[in-house]
Known about the structure:
Elements: E1 2-7, H1 12-24, E2 28-31, H2 43-54, E3 60-65, H3 69-75, E4 83-85, H4 89-97, E5 103-107, H5 113-125, H6 132-138
Parallel strand pairs: 1-2, 1-3, 3-5, 4-5
Helix pairs in contact: 2-3, 4-5
The protein binds D-ribose.
Amino acid sequence: MKIAICSDHAGVEYKTKLISYLLGKGYEVLNFGTDSTVSMDYPDVAHPMAAAIEAGEADLGIALCGTGNGMSMTLNHHPGIRAAVAWNVAIGRLAKEHNNANVLVMPARFISYQMAVSIVRAWLTADFAGGRHQRRIDKIPL
Ligand code: RB5
């Protein structure tokens, strides 16, 4: 399982720690940056990460910015991406069970690192429920 990951300057600290966490759990990780705390623009890393997932270069993605909003708005412009913002464990689990989100977005400035790890774990271990949820997903594209 290969996981792509990206953040802006607001999420870089959690991203760096999450990379170690994921590698420790045996995942392959593709890091799209940023790797600096210098202020930068989240689309500059979100678009390349989304394109890589759409191209099959990674199975899933994780994105972090301050609120989660900028990343999710950018990522969801890509037809092959369903990016869900989660700020607690239940929302992270439901992002997979109900929305089959292939990218998990977290608001680094509003959750603890421990919460971020718990959300990642819940999302990665949950299974898509299908059924009525697939029907709803099928209605998302315009
Ligand atoms: C950066 O200051 C902040 O705007 C960004 O991390 C994110 O919250 C945008 O949606």
